[in-house]
């Protein structure tokens, strides 16, 4: 099929296109230089906003925690639902939507690529099963390594090559994409009930140097070691770090210390660490009474240190469901809120927890959290290293992205919310004094170009010749509106794309899914020296016998189980 998008107002930061009126030609599943206008299907995009398909690098969309969240929250199912049509499957769920709904809702907003940011290696088959049922999106999954016994044993002995071989074997075996680190050290301590160790960290969240009981390794050593491994394997994405002390007053110091602990490992002006959902790690003060925003201090560091990138984890005032590999945090949240709680301790690999949450404008704590996420984005000098997320569903469901976009683009939109939150929250934040407003170009950077770049997906996030033919078109004329004043129009436009094109096929028209197709699943395939891999597999066979409840053979996921498998090579050395 050939498509021609004519006269659209195009924003493509990768190719430095800032609101130019131009045509986009598509042949097959790629963007090309030109097509025959008389043979192609023509879309008149005059006075319409045109961007590449959205790329979300952190959204919990698949895996056992997602499925457990659905079971924990039957009351969530009726809040958004989809009836069966000739094109769509039925389903439901607001903060814990069913798999098909996830694909439909993202595509309706113009998104075409979404990354699941955390799954235990032993649970990855479940993740791939759900990936098969999420239509219209290309996907990948980050694999948890930060509380893995085998990783720790190698790092304690400074065996970086052996650790790299192990990580490479796991990524290949599970068809994962990147190294994820969640609350390194603390999750393992939680699983063993080491309350004294956790009390030290919760009472003094600035430390990443407390030795983990029974192992003696510190969070700093885990993060630095896995950063070295990531560099050794030349993986496409930096280490993806959920820092210690999440949800603890004063934890902004931990965040800065964590970012700084790998600074000396950087060799180029590009990120070697991605700090995720930083809003939850951006708290100043010593307790909930004197809680304040720590966003200014964090961004002061990020703005002058190019080795780190972040995403927001923006809070939405709504009902949602928190779910994370940070088991101890979820227990603390359960104690604070008295809400339902479920916990999982995963063999020698990780842990997790789930707790329902309702963020309220009337709560000073929740209001301060809301301001922190926006401050992080608005203080940023380089939008190529600061990405828009809600850490779906932890800060709020992803379908609220249009609200976040309107807040970033309009001070007036932010002020309307500020006028409704407690005065104490406004005085504990800098948000009211910030005049900056994002442009369409910066929104395209933060939600498309930059996210694709840091993921190493070279054919995503832009509209240049050779890029994947993933395009979103919105019913708004950037040249005729003032985003600062017309923020409601911004919100409406980004809520429903008039066209979403996936791999050269029109899948959404006038905000409705008109065709459902399967997306790709990306994973990395590291190329290691055969002698190193042979030695690793020999050693692992013994470890599986000693530690795991399944065999080494059953741990490995055959490529035929992966929907539209798309391996990306990574080269050792």
Structure description:
A hairpin with an 8-residue loop joins strand 7 (81-82) and strand 8 (91-92). It is built from 19 helices and 26 strands. The model has no long low-confidence stretch (mean pLDDT 95). It has 2 domains: 2-52 and 463-513, Urease, subunit C, domain 1; 54-455, TIM Barrel (Alpha-Beta Barrel), CATH 3.20.20. Helices cover 34% and strands 22% of the residues. The strands form 6 sheets. Strands 1, 2, 3, 4, 5, 21, 22, 23 and 24 form a 9-stranded mixed beta sheet that branches. Strands 6-9-10-11-12-13-16-20 form an 8-stranded parallel beta sheet. It has a 3-stranded antiparallel beta sheet with strand order 17-19-18, sandwiched between helices. The chain has 573 residues and is α/β, with parallel strands linked by helices. The chain is globular, with a radius of gyration of 23 Å.
Question: Layout of SSEs?
Answer:
Elements: E1 2-12, E2 17-27, E3 30-32, E4 41-44, E5 49-52, E6 54-56, H1 64-72, E7 81-82, E8 91-92, H2 99-108, E9 111-119, H3 124-132, E10 138-144, H4 149-156, H5 160-174, E11 178-182, H6 186-191, H7 195-203, H8 219-233, E12 239-242, H9 252-260, E13 273-275, E14 283-284, E15 292-293, H10 295-302, E16 308-311, E17 319-324, H11 327-337, E18 342-346, E19 350-358, H12 364-379, E20 386-387, H13 401-409, H14 411-418, H15 423-427, H16 440-455, E21 471-474, H17 487-495, E22 499-502, E23 505-509, E24 512-513, E25 521-527, H18 530-547, H19 552-555, E26 565-571
Parallel strand pairs: 1-4, 1-5, 6-9, 9-10, 10-11, 11-12, 12-13, 13-16, 16-20, 25-26
Antiparallel strand pairs: 1-2, 2-3, 5-21, 7-8, 14-15, 17-19, 18-19, 21-22, 22-23, 23-24
Helix pairs in contact: 4-5, 4-8, 5-8, 5-18, 9-10, 10-12, 13-14, 13-17
